[in-house]
Write a structure and sequence with these properties.
The protein has about 300 residues and is of the alpha/beta class. Helices cover about 40% and strands about 20% of the residues. A hairpin with a 2-residue loop joins strand 12 and strand 13.
């Protein structure tokens, strides 16, 4: 395989030389530059990927990135930021960086991102081949929403409709919501009522009550619970959903990638995320939406 040519731009000589040795041992063809100005001269060597430190004397990383974009619009750039410097990372993404890493960085992560960058190209090129969250999500207007003052009875009726009615989004027709978004009077998402919340609601209350210290051997007997499902639901039918709902789902920007949505779902062990545009909820992306996108990619 042809070696990936990496331009390493950093004004710290020790970091630059150490990283150069490691990348070379791992099969990369490395080019070194100790400043933004020097990096622009090295563009003539046509690197496949650029590693660019943000904090440098003279031209900083942001200035250098903007100039690189003018001269080589398609080369992917991985930015190196200070630990926790998320504002710089966010700015770098808006300026067209492929990704960023905080220094000191793990060399395995760095080499993995270099290979991803060489394979995918710039965010613009990668986005041309991948659907956006806006295209995959369920628009908020197609999702079932209720205020916290609505009752469990109303929520169940609304939730049932998401499985049986005709909607403008085919993915809703195929799978239903399995949840109701709870909103306030300003249409901000303040909670979620999922089917699992409804099932938890009707379970006998003594299951969650603390056991007395002298009763550690208490055993529950589900075989004697006949009729409790029916009675539990009837007793709770007129309870307000704000009393049994779960907290609002985690949010994600509509400008984020599908991989970021995947990462957040796996990290937080959730099945859905609220999609926001400038702080306003505009949709929901669910794990099944990502699954359908998998199928679409392979079918295409």
């Amino acid at each position: 395989m042809e070696k990936i040519k990496v331009l390493m731009v950093d004004d710290e000589e020790r970091f630059r030389e150490t990283t150069n040795k490691i990348l070379t041992r791992r099969g990369f063809d490395t080019i070194l530059a100790d400043s933004g100005e020097a990096a622009l001269e090295k563009l003539a060597e046509r690197p496949d990927v650029i590693i660019l430190d943000i904090r440098m004397k003279g031209m900083d990383g942001h200035q250098t990135l903007r100039e690189i974009r003018k001269r080589m619009a398609d080369v992917p750039v991985i930015m190196l930021t200070g630990h926790g410097d998320f504002d710089s990372a966010r700015q770098a993404r808006e300026e067209g960086a492929f990704d960023y890493l905080a220094k000191p960085c793990d060399i395995d992560v760095l080499t993995g991102k270099i290979r991803d960058a060489a394979r995918l190209g710039t965010p613009t090129r990668a986005a041309q081949r991948e659907s956006s969250i806006n295209e995959v999500m369920i628009p908020i207007g197609d999702y079932t929403t209720l205020t916290g003052n609505a009752t469990i009875r109303e929520a169940i009726i609304k939730l049932k409709q998401s499985f049986s009615s005709t909607f403008s989004t085919t993915r809703i027709m195929e799978t239903g919501h399995r949840s109701v978004l709870v909103v306030d009077n300003r249409e901000r998402v303040v909670g979620i009522l999922a089917i699992s919340d409804l099932l938890q609601m009707i379970m006998p209350q003594y299951l969650t009550a603390p056991k007395p210290s002298t009763a550690d051997s208490i055993q529950y007997s589900p075989m004697f619970w006949t009729g409790m499902f029916l009675q539990g639901l009837k007793q709770k039918a007129d309870v307000k959903i704000e009393d049994v709902m779960s907290p609002a789902p985690y949010t994600i920007s509509n400008k984020a990638s599908l991989m970021e949505a995947t990462y957040l779902m796996l990290t937080y062990k959730v099945r859905r995320l609220v999609v926001e545009d400038r702080g306003k909820a505009i949709g929901v992306i669910r794990e099944q939406d990502l699954f359908f996108e998998m199928e679409r990619i392979l079918a295409g």
